[in-house]
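At your convenience, could you comment on the folded chain following this short note?
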Amino acid sequence: MRYSGIAIGLLLVLLSVGLVSCVKYHGTFSVANNASETITQVTVSICGQTIELSDIKPKESVSSSFEVTSDSHYVVRVEFRSGITLVGEGGYVTNGMNFRHEISVTDNEVRVTGGGT
């Protein structure tokens, strides 16, 4: 009888760990075009995923999401209609939390702000 109590307890612990490891966490981000010209293409790389967004006019914002699978940060490549390209890195995500970031693009800078939710 004593062993069956221990076995049940161990089984419950294993089931709890299994359920927790099945939970998926997500990150969302928005790209705000605070520049003076249209962004023709934005490529956002994070957690081994690449998200491409296009045709973001000045003063507009576009959102997207990804699955948080590991520790990672954003690598953002922006191409303007004029042909100018900016690259920026920043922000941080880690598995076990949901995240919300804003990527602000100006004429000469890409900045990532925000964090865990």
